[in-house]
Amino acid sequence: MVDLYWKCYAYGDELKPHVEFLDGIMLSSTRDVAPSCVENVDELIERQEKSLSQLDSKRNVVSDLIGKGKVILQNPDKPKFLEANVKRIEEGWDDTKKKAQDRLKLLNETKDAFIGYAENNETIATEVDVADEEIKKIKKHFNLEAAVADLKKRQDLYKKSNDTVTGLFDSINANYTCMAITIPEDKKKILSKEIKAVEAKLEVLGRFKEKVTKIEELVVSLTSFDKNLKTIDSWMKSATAELKDIKEASGGMLPEDRVARTMDLQEDIAAKIEILKSDAATELDLLPQGDKVPADAQAFKDELARITKYVTDLAENTRIECDKYSNDVKFWAEYRTGIKEFTPWLVGAEKA
């Protein structure tokens, strides 16, 4: 029994320097640090790597001590303090190793955050300038095909710029969040001000989006305007053909039928004229006005003028024809009335 206790006390004495060593590593791995620059972090990383190297150098010794203690623990007459000593060295080793590794991981992440913060701030400044320059390049195109193609280009550039700048700003905030775990309070205040200054520059994305949205609205309006003109242009051919058919088939039609068809055509023409009036009002808002109108916008103006003149002339020609056929109806009615009045007299005369 005495020999057993002597072994236990000797074991405790043997453990003491190693436990103190682990306590020292634990203290250095858990004490507060406050690096204010990447150079400070490098120094801390170097120290922490040294601590881990020292831990690794003690691995076999500590492992042997833990094994030795467990052998003594197998004795049923062992004192209670022995179990506590073995537990302290075993758990102390695992806990210290984990804390040392965690601290090294944090320091490496902090170093990356310092470097990333600086690089991301430099990059985002460049990307903001790029976005600002792209805004200046946005202009209105009035050739529909060119406008649609340009819109796609501007939408892609905006998306790229928005994704890049937003992603960089998110990274800057993530860098700060990581650094804020260890950096001193005065450094936090400085970085917070810098981040707010960067955030203020993000207004460029709002201006970029607003410009692209205006081009989107222009393309929608141009598409509708172009569709209206093409629809009426196509209708003009059928309307002209209808008037021609009425004229050429007049000999084989009753006067009432000719009038009915021309009146239907007049109603259709009147509806199209109302649409053209609306298109004319749209053109004033949609296209540039004045002496120096871009060629692509002038093409729309010329097309509207051509179609308007054609439909106006068609309306006048149809009115003239309708008036003619109205007179024919009048003469036809008078003729039929005269026949009705003359027929009884003719029948009576024949009987006499």
Describe the structure.
It is a single chain. The chain is mainly α. The longest helix has 58 residues, at 80-137. The chain has helices spanning 2-30, 38-57, 59-73, 80-137, 144-179, 185-201, 203-248, 255-286, 295-351. The model is unreliable at 329-336 (pLDDT under 50). The chain is built from 9 helices and no strands. The protein is 88% helix and 0% strand.
Poorly predicted runs of 5 or more residues: 329-336
Note the overall shape: rod-shaped
Q: Classify the secondary structure makeup into a structural class.
A: mainly alpha
Q: What share of the residues lie within helices?
A: over 70%
Number of helices in the DSSP assignment: 9
The number of strands is 0
Report the span from N to C terminus.
Answer: 172 Å
What is the H/E order? Answer: HHHHHHHHH
Rg, Cα atoms, Å: 47 Å
Strand percentage lies at: under 5%
> What kind of sheet is the major sheet?
none
Q: Average the pLDDT over all residues and give the rounded result.
A: 87
Structure at a glance:
With 352 residues, this protein is mostly helical.
How does the SSE layout of this entry go?
Elements: H1 2-30, H2 38-57, H3 59-73, H4 80-137, H5 144-179, H6 185-201, H7 203-248, H8 255-286, H9 295-351
Question: Tags for this entry?
Answer:
352 residues; mainly alpha
